[in-house]
Give the backbone structure.
Amino acid sequence: MERLSPAALADIDAIVAAHKDEPGPTIVMLHDVQNKIGYIPFEAMEKIADACGTSVAEVYGVVKFYAQFTTEPKGKHVINICLGTACYVKGAQALVDRATELTGAPVNGTSPDGLFSVDATRCLGACGLAPVAVIDDHVIGQANEQNKLVKALTKIIAEEHDKVA
């Protein structure tokens, strides 16, 4: 298991302290930790469980129940592609395949360079825009028309390579 930095541990402690006396603080703490650190490490679950007077198993159960929570670090750019029925029948699987090819990230994983995570999701709530993808909170409806998703990813990849060069 990867060791958290002292700064990350301090962030977790501050989040727990800020919410521990609120009613039902577990979800709020989990959201805040993920927003601050990018994922929910085991150490955070331990601290949250202790502050809430519950078991780590219960906190872990909450983390695993809600799809928006992750226990693994995500890439700098997170790509969500809907594989719900409407999106799937309109070609979403081909979008997933192309995104993994372009980024080097496996489905529901992160690229070796840490730049990209590609997540196949069940529903993004925009069935009328199928197929739908979300890159860094930017929704791309009808993502296969005129290669919208591919163009967006190619642009990000070029920008990231320009930063390195």
